[in-house]
Write a structure and sequence with these properties.
InterPro entries: 2Fe-2S-bd (IPR002888), 2Fe-2S-bd_dom_sf (IPR036884), 2Fe-2S_ferredoxin-like_sf (IPR036010), 2Fe-2S_ferredoxin-type (IPR001041), Beta-grasp_dom_sf (IPR012675), Diverse_Oxidoreductases (IPR051452). With 168 residues, the protein is α+β, with helices and mostly antiparallel strands. It has helices at 31-38, 95-103, 112-125, 131-138, 149-164, and strands spanning 3-4, 10-16, 19-25, 57-60, 63-66, 79-81. It folds into two domains: 3-83, Roll (Ubiquitin-like (UB roll)); 95-164, Orthogonal Bundle (DNA polymerase, domain 1), CATH 1.10.150. Strand 4 and strand 5 (63-66) form a beta hairpin.
Length: 168
């Protein structure tokens, strides 16, 4: 439960990348600023600052959310995942990350963290998406470099790898 401390700061408790976290912030603080500036999690990119580009996408309770327009207090009691929380604790890449790397599904990389999180959310809810579903799902994240083809192929490859499981 959010509480106002004696000095007027808002205390927000949530799970961040699998760890219980409590922060003190102000009511006007947006999640992207909290993550990037206060918690030094720079993988959440900010481009437009108006919920248009998708670069700042994070997962809140498993679903995409624009961190640039989500107040920090809105994640009270919620589960937040950033790109820093995607790989396994031993450093093993998530299947989506591995597929993006194998396909070179990025150029400048600015949209990549948001794309990977969108793909993870998609595959958690639709493990065998068709091409149109993938395109619709990632369309909220603008990529000015790749033309999306390699991104779509990477998501298809990740879906296949996740369905088939680890290779022996």
């Amino acid at each position: 439960m959010s509480l106002i401390s004696k000095d007027g700061a808002l205390r927000v408790a949530f799970t961040l990348n699998g760890r219980e976290t409590t922060v003190e912030t102000v009511t006007s603080r947006v999640l992207s600023d909290l993550l990037r500036d206060d918690m030094n999690l720079k993988g959440t990119r900010v481009s437009c600052g108006r919920t248009v580009c998708g670069a700042c996408s994070v997962l809140v309770d498993g679903f995409p959310r624009a961190a640039c327009s989500t107040f920090a207090f809105e994640v009270e009691g919620r589960d937040v995942q950033t790109i820093e929380g995607v790989e396994a604790p031993d450093g093993t890449l998530d299947p989506v990350q591995a597929a993006f790397a194998a396909k070179s599904a990025f150029q400048c990389g600015f949209c990549t963290s948001g794309m990977i999180l969108l793909a993870k959310s998609l595959l958690a809810t639709h493990p065998d998406p068709d091409r149109a579903t993938i395109i619709a799902w990632i369309s909220s994240n603008i990529c000015r470099c790749t033309g999306y083809e390699l991104i779509v192929e990477a998501v298809q490859d990740a879906a296949r790898a996740m369905r088939e499981g680890p290779k022996s």
